[in-house]
Structure formats: C-alpha cells, structure tokens
Design goal:
About 15% of the residues lie in helices and about 20% in strands. The chain is of the alpha+beta class. It is globular, with a radius of gyration of 12 Å.
Length: about 110
Amino acid sequence: MPDISFIQPDGSEHGLEAPEGVSLMQVATGAGIAGIVAECGGSAICATCHVYVDDPWQALLAPPDANELAMLECTAAERRPGSRLACQIPITAALQGLVVHVPARQY
C-alpha cells in the first residue's frame, strides 16, 4: 500500500496508506480529506476532486484524457500544470510517496 500525502492550503499535511486499485479520490474521501468534495462520485463530470500533483509525480501518471482535460477547464481554483482530477488517478505501487496539494476551493 503506497504512502500518499495530501497537503492542505494552510500547509498542514495528512499522510496515509492507500490501497492499490482504487482512485486517489476514493482514498481521499474514505479518509475524510478536507477539500476533496467528489460531488459526482468519480465519474469525472464535476471537477470537485481537483488536486495539484507535485512535479516529480506528474510523469508517472497517464496523461489526462479529453474528458478530464475538459473538466479541468471548469475548476474553481486556479488550474496549474499539475492539475488533475483525483478520480482519474489510479493508485499503483509506483505512486509510493505521492504528494498532492488540495486547492483552496472546489466551488
């Protein structure tokens, strides 16, 4: 189970072990990570699980598909190069140590 760190807008960090085979959104909502709303439940149709993936980890992720890119145009917080929808990031062993930042707002 990879260790994942969620960094809140105030700089506080919440680390946890994430089971492989689920999405980063499922990990966040299951652990009660503040700021990950996940209104659509992982269907990639709401952009309320927007996160900023730290630079070293971006290359390990599959690139966003057209649907995710369209939803990233709808984020409430600033879109950055590391912006992704947490529901579209499957947890794998390769993500050991993954660090993501939670935006200040999802609405």
